[in-house]
Specification:
Oligomer: single chain
Order of helices and strands: HEEHHHEHHEEEEEEHHHHHHHHHHHHHH
Bound molecules: manganese (II) ion
């Protein structure tokens, strides 16, 4: 199948029949989670392959053995020691975070290279509608650090979960679940790890909606209170992670692109050929998620803090604030004030992510440049123009932050780079750390099981255990996150034979692979200077597509 732009294709009839087939097989629906555009039903050609199913089944075989052994050890309610949570891994590897999760270092580091490294933002003044002034915060620290100055110089950061305040909480067999909606402050301290400086947590307000009735807690509070406050942040972050960063802002926002592409670009259109491996299994996977993850009684309903309806509202809210142009990596980092390397010298998600972004950007440009030699080539490509139109249309993909026509190559390269970055690196960065950070439940529980104490005053260790998930949801959370992160189908930039059959493209793909190898070595070097190895953006561990 030789790639052609429509205006150069000698076989117009074949093109037309390819498009007609696409329009019949791929249709939108808007009723599952309005206003999100989703696929009506999965065409057979999009289903998981037997290779995928066989390999994924094999990769998850250990899980059954592990959970059987957990049952045999009769770890059952009530759990009475934090250590009891460590006994859920008789066969499976113990997550490394188990050794460090109680430390401030691990807590801060997870904002920069954990499972949800896209929440933290720089502040230059105190957040709007926040009860305390910087002077009141400073008062808690005496002369040990000048936070007023650190705020002015842009060295304070915030993880703000107040948008989750609307969640009332769902239920479990023995009662109610709860979701804290805290706000957490961090400071970049110029001394610390290897003289490079480090991020440290400085204050947490557990219930900002109560104003000053909910105090600013700090590392100077007693250890149990401070750990409780940090746990509240971790619970909010886990719910934000699954519904916003992971499900909405990778899986669901990419779905319209995979629906419109076969409807508007013929099978031998160069852009369709480029995108195909980056959409592989995503539609089947998203459909599986709708039927088996966010269904009534499914894992989201069972494990996340809100009712199913409330958890799905997080998805809808995340979608409202998402647009393609604002989520191009350089722009997204800038929007959070996290792009300044001098101010914040250590941010693994950014530092490794940019290497991948740049490699993808170059590859996309080199590839598309083979076909689009001038702006006229873009204008004359009626399929490409129809693709943009339908992506943006209300009765199409409803994609925001994109024009309904494509006028320049730079514009197209930016769009396609963003798609490839989200399907590859971003999804891998939020998907695969699930086991490491959420598999060990006390690090990142998906719900609280006792009402949230705004002053963080809990009585003793047992009260902390009662606040954390009981044995049954603990088993389910471990099972779910293991299943979601155990298998990698492919590898970024490595394509199966039939793709890029055009000899011109071979060179471009080879160059991309070489570039990714360079990035791999750079990241390995980066990791030598880090407290925690950040492995999730190493190109060899990044997938082409949202296939899990
Ligand atoms: Mn995923």
């Amino acid at each position: 199948m030789k790639p052609f732009l429509p205006q150069n294709d000698p076989n117009k009839a074949q093109r037309q029949s390819s498009l007609e087939k696409g329009r019949k097989e791929y249709e939108f629906r808007y009723d599952f989670l309005p206003p999100l555009a989703m696929l009506k039903s999965v065409p057979p050609s999009e289903n998981f392959s037997t290779k995928y199913i066989a390999e994924r089944t094999l990769e998850t075989a250990e899980l059954g053995v592990n959970m059987m052994a957990v049952k045999a050890h009769a770890i059952w309610d009530p759990l009475d020691e934090l250590q009891d949570y460590e006994d859920f891994f008789p066969v499976l590897p113990k997550p490394n975070v188990m050794k460090t999760y109680e430390t401030d270092d691990s807590f801060a580091e997870q904002r920069l290279c954990g499972v949800n490294p896209v929440v933290l933002r720089q502040i230059k003044q105190m957040p709007a509608n926040f009860a305390f002034t910087i002077e009141e915060l400073q008062a808690k620290f005496g002369n040990s650090i000048n936070l007023i100055e650190r705020l002015a110089t842009g060295n304070l950061y915030v993880a703000d979960y107040r948008p989750l305040t609307f969640i009332q909480g769902g239920t479990f067999a023995k009662g109610k679940k709860y979701l804290p909606a805290p706000i957490a402050f961090f400071c970049w301290r110029s001394s610390g790890f290897q003289d490079r400086g480090q991020l440290v947590p400085i204050a947490i307000q557990i219930k900002p909606n109560l104003g000053k009735a909910s105090p600013l807690l700090t590392p100077f509070d007693d250890a149990l209170t401070w750990f409780y406050a940090k746990s509240c942040v971790q619970i909010a972050d886990s719910n934000h992670h699954e519904m916003s960063s992971h499900l909405c802002r990778t899986h669901f926002v990419m779905e319209p692109f995979a629906v419109v592409t076969p409807r508007q670009l013929a099978e031998n259109h160069p852009l369709r050929i480029l995108l195909k491996p980056h959409f592989r299994f995503m539609l089947a996977n998203n459909d599986l998620g709708r039927k088996g993850l966010v269904n009534r009684g499914g894992p989201v309903d069972e494990l996340l803090a809100g009712t199913l309806q409330e958890s799905l509202q997080i998805v809808v809210d995340a979608y409202k604030d998402w647009s393609l142009d604002q989520f191009a990596l350089p722009r997204e980092l800038k929007n959070r004030g996290m792009d300044d390397v001098k101010n914040l010298p250590h941010y693994p998600y950014r530092d490794d992510g940019i290497l991948l972004w740049n490699a993808i950007n170059k590859f996309v440009f080199n590839y598309l440049e083979l076909y689009y030699k001038s702006p006229t080539d873009l204008k004359a490509d009626v399929e490409l123009q129809a693709w943009a139109r339908e992506l943006v249309a209300q009765d199409g993909g409803r994609v925001k932050g994109m024009k309904n026509s494509i006028d320049t190559l730079e514009q197209l390269v930016e769009i396609v780079t963003t798609i490839l970055y989200i399907c590859g690196p971003l999804h891998s960065a939020v998907n695969f750390p699930q086991y490491e950070y959420m598999g060990f439940i006390p690090n990142m529980p998906l719900a609280a099981y006792k009402p949230i104490q705004e002053k963080g005053d809990i009585k003793d260790r047992q009260a902390l255990i009662d606040f954390l998930p009981p044995a049954k949801p603990t088993s389910s959370q471990l099972t779910t996150v293991f299943t979601l992160s155990a298998y990698r189908y492919d590898r970024l930039g490595y394509y199966e034979e039939e793709e890029f059959a055009d000899p011109n493209a071979d060179d471009v793909v080879n160059k991309f692979q070489q570039e990714l190898n360079v990035v791999q070595r750079k990241i390995e070097l980066n990791n030598k200077g880090r407290l925690v190895n950040y492995e999730y953006l190493q190109p060899r561990l990044v997938l082409n597509s949202i296939s899990i």
